[in-house]
Predict the structure.
Amino acid sequence: MATSVDPGLLVQLEEYGLKDAATCFNCGNCTAVCALSTENTPFPRKVIRYLQIGAADKLLQSPEPWLCYYCGDCSETCPRDANPGEVMMGLRRYLTAQYDITGISKRFYTSKVFEISAILFLAALVGLGFMAFHGTIVTDRVALNAFASSHVIEVLDLIMLVVLSFFLLTNARRMAKAILGDPGQYEKPVDPESSGPAAEVKKWNGIPVSLYFSEIKELLVNFATQKKFKSCDTKSQDMQWYVHLLIMTGYSSIFLLVVVFLRWFQRDEILSFWHPVRLIGYYGTFALLYGTTYALIGRWKKTKMVYKFSHSSDWAFLILLWLTTFTGILIHFTRLLEMPLSTYTIYVIHMMIAIPMLVLEVPFAKWAHLLYRPLALYLMRVKERAVA
């Protein structure tokens, strides 16, 4: 099959923070030192070559950018300072934009003005919504559910969950079709000596649906543990895995409390310290605060190769997540100290930060990577079995 070439691809990718790939002369040193590179997936070298020659369609079909966990070994040993680790990071931003049919990801990653404006616009929208529709302001005690009914917030949360899941899963479907490639490659030749009609098998993209289900464990395990992080087998990368796992599990814990169990989480009465809901909340808060603070300090001090080249979207994601966690802590303390007006005010500020982060980051930016990485590993496994 002929490969279309886009001569302006390398320039286009500079908008996604990918600036040094042109200096690479394809020596293969990055692939040799990478602990995750294999004979079938020789990255970063292969995809860097694709972008140098402008093979945009080949890049779109490549799972390799999602297999890289950016330990930084390739960048530290590159003889040309082409920074292949950051190239892979830039490619992940580019691919996220390619999967998104709305164009929001592309604008979010390539325009700081749009990025900041979108966050501020959504924050203002949330603030105006509370100004117009908040409930009773009780001042002699903290009555958060009178100010912002948990039943109303729960319904709005579920609506937002459905809408964001639709966009995320739609993007994931486009990613899957790109990586799996032409359905015709999975068709087996018909045996001319066979007799009788062939049994009808349900397929998606040329692959039997049963095969997708048989490999679903690969998706679930990698999503829950992100275990490939530890495969780099370096102390520095082990720490990155711990931080990443804290942020992911912390976010998942708080997400479950806020979206699924909100009526038990947002209560006017204070639960006992050992209540499961309160303990889960404390774990999620600690995990997010520690993980985001560690990453922010690392990016500020540039302590590791992975932190030396930060895109604006990296900062936006971490700052929004840290502020969401911090304002959540403040709400908890003002409730314990019986400060009603402070509780309501900080609650509105908290929502003005959390909602823009969810709306923009989950389907269109950094949070989507949590799905795309394990999905790429899963699709490769399905594809290998289908071809075999």
